[in-house]
Specification:
This protein is of the alpha+beta class. It contains 10 helices and 13 strands. The protein is globular. Bound molecules: 6-O-phosphono-alpha-D-fructofuranose.
């Protein structure tokens, strides 16, 4: 009897992936399940964010007598908690934590992965109801199994990522993740509380008509960046310009849109901040990995983001990511 399985849940999908790889231990599937669970809890709180004046804001005590946490602190604790009590992760790095957290218990020390997170990127947009997101990056440990994870496990170049993904808390809640086998998107179905495969095998269109950048910094950008932005604005049959400018100041939402529709997202360095604003390990590397697997490109203006050798947990980098042909057009104007 054939099973007409039109809709696959995240768990069914990852289990199917495991069936295709007999040597898979299921640790990565477990990791994604843990992240998906924490994201459901974060989603519930994000959806209530507009009720802060009723539920109380950070630092207050809510009706259950619990201290209300800032949402990004709450999100951080959710992701750290599920991974610490799971079987797949030996430790995490997080935008919310100064240093790595090594779980250092017998089960975690035998886990082969570490994770880096931006638990709630764009959280300043919450009070104006703009979509925000969680970004994550997964590495296989380079330190000895059976012992605690070390700093080196986290300071690997992005080209060593095993998986990367994000959750976008928007008009719907989606979990998108990439492995070297492809990029797949799962939309949370609240009626069953499961992520269901809604965007199989995502590919970024080679060319798009959207460019995303903060124009407020225009006069602080290097000449090559300004030159490319001007091309985006000009009517030109050769480039298909003018493009549409879309920038909502929430990286997950901006890059997700451009991944699906085609486009380019830029957060260049400026005279005030030559390294830009975005963090390499848990913002740029994950999106660079996802975009390259989907057929796009990602650079710091000079080299592939994924080839950057990190030196610090929270280091920043200029970031350009998007459709292959638009990135190649940018490169003719700007080589850092
Ligand atoms: P700007 C949000 O604070 C964030 O980290 C990203 O999500 C977003 O792309 C960027 O900053 C926006 O920064 O300087 O343009 O407001």
């Amino acid at each position: 009897m054939s099973v007409n399985r039109k809709i696959q849940t995240l768990d069914e999908f990852t289990i199917q992936q495991m069936r295709d790889f007999p040597h898979a231990t299921g640790e990565l599937a477990g990791l994604l399940r843990d992240i998906g669970l924490a994201a459901k809890r974060v989603n519930t709180e994000v959806n209530k964010a507009g009720l802060v004046d009723i539920l109380g804001d950070a630092g207050s005590i809510n009706v259950q007598g619990e201290e209300v946490k800032k949402l990004d602190v709450y999100a951080n604790n959710q992701f750290m908690g599920v991974l610490q009590h799971g079987i797949s992760c030996a430790g995490i790095g997080s935008e919310e934590l100064d240093d790595i957290v090594v779980f250092d218990d017998p089960v975690s020390n035998n886990s082969k992965y570490v994770c880096l997170f931006d638990p709630l990127d764009g959280s300043s947009n919450i009070d104006v109801n703009v979509s925000i997101g969680t970004i994550f990056s997964v590495f296989r440990r380079v330190s000895e199994l059976g012992k605690p994870a070390t700093q080196e496990d986290f300071l690997q170049p992005g080209n060593k990522q095993v998986a990367a993904g994000y959750v976008i808390y928007g008009s719907s809640t989606m979990l998108v993740y990439a492995t070297r086998r492809g990029v797949n998107g799962f939309t949370l179905d609240p009626s069953i509380g499961e992520y269901t495969l809604s965007h199989p095998n995502i590919k970024c269109p080679e060319k798009g008509k959207i460019y995303s950048v903060n124009h407020g910094n225009f006069f602080q950008y290097e000449e090559g960046v300004k030159s490319y932005i001007t091309v985006c604005q000009k009517k030109d049959k050769a480039t298909g310009g003018p493009y549409t400018q879309r920038y909502i100041g929430s990286m997950v939402a901006d890059v997700h849109r451009n991944l699906i529709k085609g486009g380019i997202f830029m957060y260049p360095g400026t005279t005030d901040k030559p390294k830009g604003k975005l963090r390499l390990l848990y913002e740029c590397n994950p999106f660079a990995f996802i975009m390259e697997i989907a057929g796009g490109k990602a650079t710091n203006g000079k080299i592939r983001v994924l080839d950057i050798q990190p030196t610090e947990l929270h280091q920043r980098t200029p970031f350009f990511v998007g459709s292959k042909l638009m990135m190649e057009e940018l490169e003719t104007h700007y080589k850092g």
